[in-house]
């Protein structure tokens, strides 16, 4: 596969964290304005191999310092959506954890409205559609996450379409979050849960039982036939994030990367960046790496984007329109 062609083809991205994806030039601008030591930004890009997920998550302590005011969040959301649009991502779901942006006193409704404004500005300027997912944090209590969900769903923000749980993933992480997923569903949100990133396939099974339409990472599914059968049966979409998965040691190396195995088994997968800046990547780069290491071609790239679209939290009508755009653009190559 060729870089120019992969770049130019329309793409879908469902798993992208705002606080790990703000372009470096925007972070530099924000750091200057806030007089934050610029040298700290050198630590934002995580090493190619971290010890584990917790090690990888350290980068966010720095980026989050620059995402605490309305102006900073608006600019961050705009620049992230812009970066995706510039590599021809046509549909994106951008996720963020509102409770991580309250340090300078912003209220939760102010936080989501700032992100929404930035995303709207990008949608006006570029050919991209963006929706928002909010993340509860696993280190916070159910009560804290529930209060957050309750306050944010009252805003009736039209871009808010889904709920996720992020942060360090212990074993049995999903066994106590039923009140959260039930509440989110009651308020019309769809569910995707980070699960099976840290080795526990039970979390994947539990996530699907809780009504998750999609699984973030889902790597541990590789080790567990029950989880695999359930994903196939329910048509669950696994949001794979190759570079990030190798960085955090969710997968040791490309040889062990489960994409082709999952596809053979009939599990629907899509490809994502996770964190464009922290993982120093783009969606174009992720597909090129898959071509280099796993030998995928344009036909597979098309399927992966259609899988993403099928799992997107949008109406059937919008899916159909975007699917037609993808079919047409990939036709000469597959
Ligand atoms: Zn993630």
Describe this structure in words.
Helices cover 46% and strands 15% of the residues. The longest helix is centred in the middle third of the chain and has 18 residues. It has a single domain, classed as Metal-dependent hydrolases (TIM Barrel), CATH 3.20.20.140. The N and C termini lie close together (11 Å). It has an eight-stranded parallel β-sheet. The chain is built from 15 helices and eight strands. By secondary structure, the chain is of the alpha/beta class. The structure holds zinc ion (ZN). The site of zinc ion (ZN) has 6 residues, from strand 1.
Uncertain segments? none
What is the spatial order of strands in the main beta sheet?
1-2-3-4-5-6-7-8
CATH architecture: Alpha-Beta Barrel
Order of helices and strands: HEHHHHEHEHEHEHEHEHHEHHH
Helix content: 40-55%
SS-derived structural category: alpha/beta
Which fold name corresponds to the CATH topology?
A: TIM Barrel
Biggest sheet, in brief?
Answer: 8 strands, parallel
Can you tell me the number of structural domains? 1
Strand percent estimate: 5-15%
Hetero groups in this structure are: zinc ion
- Count of individual helical segments: 15
- The CA-CA distance between the termini, in Å, is 11 Å
CATH class group: Alpha Beta
Radius of gyration: 18 Å
CATH superfamily: Metal-dependent hydrolases
SS elements, strand count: 8
Shape: globular
């Amino acid at each position: 596969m060729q870089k120019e062609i992969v770049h130019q083809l329309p793409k879908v991205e469902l798993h992208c964290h705002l606080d790990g994806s703000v372009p470096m030039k925007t972070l530099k601008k924000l750091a200057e304005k806030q007089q934050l030591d610029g040298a700290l930004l050198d630590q934002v890009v995580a090493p190619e191999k971290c010890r584990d997920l917790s090690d990888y998550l350290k980068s966010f302590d720095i980026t989050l310092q620059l995402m605490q005011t309305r102006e900073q969040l608006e600019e961050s959301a705009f620049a992230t959506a812009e970066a995706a649009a510039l590599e021809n991502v046509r549909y994106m779901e951008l996720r963020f954890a509102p409770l991580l942006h309250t340090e300078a006193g912003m209220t939760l409704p102010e936080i989501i409205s700032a992100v929404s404004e930035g995303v709207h500005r990008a949608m006006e300027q570029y050919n991209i559609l963006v929706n928002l997912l909010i993340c509860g944090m696993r280190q916070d209590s159910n009560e804290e996450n529930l209060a957050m969900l309750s306050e944010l769903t009252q805003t009736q923000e039209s871009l808010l379409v889904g709920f996720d749980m992020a942060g360090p993933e212990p074993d049995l992480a999903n066994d106590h979050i039923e009140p959260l997923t039930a509440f989110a569903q009651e308020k019309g949100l769809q569910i995707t849960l980070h699960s099976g990133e840290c080795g526990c396939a039970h979390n994947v099974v539990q996530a699907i039982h809780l009504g998750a339409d999609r699984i973030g990472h889902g790597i541990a599914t590789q080790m567990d036939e029950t989880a695999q059968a359930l994903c196939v049966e329910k048509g669950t979409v696994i949001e794979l994030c190759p570079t990030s998965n190798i960085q955090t040691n969710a997968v040791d190396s490309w040889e062990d990367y489960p994409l082709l195995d999952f596809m053979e088994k009939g599990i629907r997968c899509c490809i994502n960046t996770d964190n464009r800046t922290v993982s120093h990547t783009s969606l174009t780069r992720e597909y090129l790496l898959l071509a280099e290491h796993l030998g995928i071609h344009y036909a597979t790239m098309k399927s992966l984007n259609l899988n993403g679209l099928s799992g997107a939290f949008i109406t059937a009508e919008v899916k159909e329109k975007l699917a037609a755009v993808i079919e047409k653009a990939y036709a000469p190559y597959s």
